[in-house]
């Protein structure tokens, strides 16, 4: 019974914190602090690095994990597939200037530059496994990019979709490559690597079935009121794909994201209320718990007390920004210098995937605990600074 009380007390404090943060952030006039950043900082204050008021338990961890899955689901929900087929950009008929192509070229540039920087680090004995560290540096954070773009009301624009696709390609590709690398490194089992592709087959099947179901008249009749059938279907898809990803040994970010893409493709963005309802559920409860828990779980003293952090932290932090800012210069084909640099700044944010990838590296014995701690701190720093830098650059652009 004691555990039950502790569980609800910690949850109450987190939800109360999540309620206060937007009010405080709104009052800050000097810096346009994103809500996500405010939640992480608030988590640090009440967590291990601060007042230590939050005590972890299975229920709280589950809510935070599901919040992350829901965030990835909403990221997929924000994908407007019509932008995949844009042919005219800035009044010119050039296929290589579409959001999807720019995003893909940016990721390839990130991957190559990251490997070069990691190779240099290897010469100085900073990293032992170049592959895992290259993938770690190549990540970005959909979890930071989507809320930041949403606050600026940019998700429905070509510019916003270009940044969103860039974050998506980076997270999707690095997650998939990490999954393949782990499968190869730990078991060298080609059958297991082949099974990973099954989730895409499931995506196609669920999409086809969903397309037929959504045409049924009864679905529209039960869309509102106490039935909320479309919301229930959305939750079925989230849990189905997250469960499938878990069974196949894939990070849940892929499963949750694909579920969001299915829901997005089956509903009209301009007329359906499903987007508002799912946003309210996600950002109003589950997602805020996830971000605050990121802050509460971080122990800054463990990292700062390590002498190696003196040179590891700035080295990895500089590399984390270089591998995004330099390739992001390709945005200059379509956008102004301010928009280009703002996009590079936002894409430099890291959070959950970089932390998960680093943990995998430690588990496989490919990364030291010292580097893992520094990577976590880099994630905290970038996901705090990058949205602020984006807001500053983009705000200056719109003046």
How is this structure best described in words?
Helix content is 73%, strand content 0%. α4 (99-123) packs antiparallel against α15, α6 runs antiparallel to α7 and α16 (337-347) runs antiparallel to α18. It is built from 18 helices and no strands. It starts with a helix and ends with a helix. The radius of gyration is 21 Å and the shape is globular.
Summarize the structure.
The protein is mainly α.
Q: N-to-C terminal Cα separation, in Å?
A: 57 Å
Low-pLDDT parts are 1-5, 86-91
Indicate the percent of residues in helices. over 70%
Instruction: Tell me the fraction of residues in β-strands, as a range.
Output: under 5%
* Class from secondary-structure proportions: mainly alpha
Task: Report the mean per-residue pLDDT as an integer.
Answer: 84
**What is the overall shape?**
globular
Radius of gyration: 21 Å
Please give the number of β-strands.
0
Task: Output the number of helix runs.
Answer: 18
Describe the biggest sheet?
A: none
Secondary-structure element order, N to C = HHHHHHHHHHHHHHHHHH
């Amino acid at each position: 019974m004691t555990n039950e009380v502790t569980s609800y007390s910690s949850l109450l404090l987190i939800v109360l914190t999540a309620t206060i943060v937007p009010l405080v952030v709104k009052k800050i006039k000097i810096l346009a602090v994103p809500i996500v950043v405010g939640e992480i900082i608030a988590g640090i204050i009440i967590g291990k690095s601060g007042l230590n008021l939050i005590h972890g338990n299975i229920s709280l961890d589950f809510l935070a994990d599901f919040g992350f899955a829901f965030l990835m689901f909403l990221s997929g929900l924000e994908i407007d597939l019509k932008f995949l087929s844009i042919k005219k950009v800035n009044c010119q008929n050039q296929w290589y200037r579409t959001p999807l192509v720019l995003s893909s070229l940016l990721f390839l540039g990130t991957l190559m530059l990251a490997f070069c920087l990691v190779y240099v680090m290897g010469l100085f004995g900073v990293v032992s496994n170049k592959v895992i560290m290259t993938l770690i540096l190549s990540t970005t954070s959909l979890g930071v990019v989507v809320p930041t773009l949403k606050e600026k009301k940019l998700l429905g624009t070509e510019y916003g979709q270009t940044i969103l696709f860039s974050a998506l390609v980076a997270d999707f590709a690095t997650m998939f490559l990490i999954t393949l690398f782990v499968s190869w490194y730990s078991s060298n089992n080609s059958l297991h690597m082949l099974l990973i592709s099954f989730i895409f087959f499931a995506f196609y099947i669920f999409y086809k079935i969903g397309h037929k179901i959504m045409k049924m008249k009864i679905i529209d009749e039960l869309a509102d009121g106490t039935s909320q059938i479309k919301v229930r279907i959305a939750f079925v898809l989230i849990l189905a794909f997250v469960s499938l990803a878990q069974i196949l040994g894939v990070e849940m970010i892929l499963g949750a994201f694909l579920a969001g893409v299915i829901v997005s493709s089956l509903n009209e963005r301009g007329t359906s209320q499903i987007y508002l309802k799912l946003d309210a559920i996600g950002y109003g409860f589950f997602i805020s718990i996830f971000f605050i828990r990121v802050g509460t779980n971080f122990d800054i003293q463990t990292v700062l007390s390590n002498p190696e952090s003196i040179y590891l932290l700035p080295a990895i932090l500089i590399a984390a920004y270089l591998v995004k800012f330099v390739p992001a210069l390709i945005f200059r084909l379509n956008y102004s210098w301010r928009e280009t640099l703002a996009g590079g700044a936002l894409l430099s944010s890291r959070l959950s995937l970089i932390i998960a990838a680093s943990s995998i590296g430690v588990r496989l014995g490919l990364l030291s605990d010292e580097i893992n701690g520094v990577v976590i701190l880099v994630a905290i720093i970038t996901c705090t600074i990058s949205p602020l830098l984006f807001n500053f650059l983009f705000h200056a652009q719109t003046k």
